[in-house]
Model the fold of this input.
Amino acid sequence: MNRHAGFNILELMVALAVMGVITVLAVPAFGELVKNNRLATQANDMINSLHYARSEAVNRGSNIRIEPLTAGTTWTTGWRVCIDVNVDNDCVDVTDIILRNFDRIEGASLISSQNSITYRPAGDITAATTLTLTATECTGEHIRTISLLASGHPNLTRNACP
Done:
């Protein structure tokens, strides 16, 4: 009698059913993982830009400004770090020096309590500020709050969605 190696149709169907159940259980958890990682990366980008601006203010001995690319308190379209040379509270003039631009936020919104942040040469800021990063379709703990004290140090907290 010849013996054939391999799977029969019943074994193949059972294996596919088990894989289907595992996939159904794993996909929602993977989506949460992706959303958490995206928010962590975006919050870290903002904190890195704050550290960069503070460092430049101390090293250059001048005010360094961080502002959204579009006017207002919504920073979702991106932001820039600049030197406001003519001290007119914006960085759109040809005399102003743009040090670095940061990309837009994807899959979330970034709102600030201020329309800009200015670091002084001592490393402090002109006014305490709060930046809130909220995931679209917010569920669970998908809000990151960056609080800037007057000393200029950022503090990151995770918050639950309303």
About this structure: The helical segments are 9-60. Strands lie at 64-68, 79-83, 97-102, 108-112, 117-119, 129-135, 143-148, 154-159.
